[in-house]
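can u do me a favor
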């Protein structure tokens, strides 16, 4: 026969203790969930807000430069146009814009959830924790380019014909000596003086403005390893697109040959129509009077004459240099960069 038993007082105490233990463990689990899930949610939100702040700061900096200046209200409107679309949920608030530093825009973004501006937490709310507002900020700067790396050719400031009121200059031919056009203030001082630069890698020279002079690479022919770049320029132009190259511009040249140097004052962007850097193949393209858009005045002469044909244009480049501001001369080429 099965014996029936009754609960004792000790049994009741054990069940009560188990209930307390379960309640404590629930709090621990909720706390762990708050740390794992809610903290992850906050980090993910902050990453999206940072994307929004970066895009907003770059957009505002670009527009402020184009307009020749802007108000805080204008900058906020320009930042808001891109800050929302550059977050996953499309919901971002531009809290503030700071224009107190010249040529610099700081944008602060924050969470936008419903109408309260808070990020609602999934687990921490069970612990009666308040909602949070997540923020991010970005700083974009714009200024005249002061350093660069690219095609190893420098142009004289005597060739530059883009005034501050124009977006494009006249189409012109810039000839290598002995062509006699735009060889620079030093005349024939440096053989090859409109000039090839010393390279730090194949078909590339790193330059900067200021007191540091850039070494020259004498001779009228370009480096042999520039063919790939020139073929790329050809392909782009034949496809109906523009080739725009930012060249370092010098105001003075010293010494001769391999000991020659150029004093770089800034950077100007040249929209290239054609060139003759050598004979045949990649090294000459659309350089005769019979080519599209060419005239006898623009065409490069036969034989050893060397030239590049095109026009100076105003140009904004994005993230092409390091540093917090440009100190180069105003030659129509401006760099816009995130610095924070």
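np, heres the sequence
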């Amino acid at each position: 026969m099965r014996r029936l038993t009754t609960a004792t007082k000790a049994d009741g105490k054990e069940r009560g203790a188990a209930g307390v233990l379960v309640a404590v463990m629930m709090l621990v689990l909720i706390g762990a969930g708050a740390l794992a899930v809610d903290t992850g949610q906050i980090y993910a939100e902050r990453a999206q807000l940072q994307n929004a702040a970066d895009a907003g700061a770059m957009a505002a900096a670009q527009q402020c430069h184009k307009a020749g200046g802007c108000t805080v209200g204008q900058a906020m409107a320009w930042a808001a146009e891109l800050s929302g679309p550059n977050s996953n949920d499309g919901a971002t608030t531009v809290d503030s814009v700071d224009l107190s530093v010249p040529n610099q825009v700081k944008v602060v973004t924050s969470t936008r959830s419903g109408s309260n501006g808070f990020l609602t937490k999934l687990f921490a709310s069970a612990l009666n924790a308040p909602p949070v507002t997540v923020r991010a900020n970005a700083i974009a700067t714009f200024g005249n380019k002061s350093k660069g790396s690219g095609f190893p050719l420098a142009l004289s400031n005597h060739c530059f014909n883009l005034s501050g009121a124009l977006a494009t200059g006249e189409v012109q031919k810039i000839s290598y000596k002995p062509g006699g056009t735009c060889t620079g203030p030093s005349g024939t001082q440096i053989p090859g003086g409109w000039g090839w630069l010393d390279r730090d890698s194949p078909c590339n020279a790193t330059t900067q403005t200021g007191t540091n002079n850039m070494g020259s690479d004498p001779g009228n022919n370009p480096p042999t390893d520039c063919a790939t770049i020139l073929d790329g320029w050809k392909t782009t132009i034949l496809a109906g697109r523009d080739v725009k190259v930012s060249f370092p511009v010098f105001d003075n040249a010293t010494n001769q040959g391999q000991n020659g140097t150029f004093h770089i004052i800034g950077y100007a962007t040249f929209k290239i129509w054609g060139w003759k850097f050598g004979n045949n193949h990649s090294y000459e393209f659309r350089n005769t009077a019979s080519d599209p858009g060419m005239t006898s005045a623009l065409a490069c002469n036969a034989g050893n004459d060397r030239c590049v044909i095109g026009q100076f244009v105003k140009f904004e480049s994005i993230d092409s240099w390091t540093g917090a501001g440009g100190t180069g001369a105003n030659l129509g080429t401006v760099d816009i960069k995130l610095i924070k």
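The first strand starts at residue 92 and ends at 98. hope that helps!!
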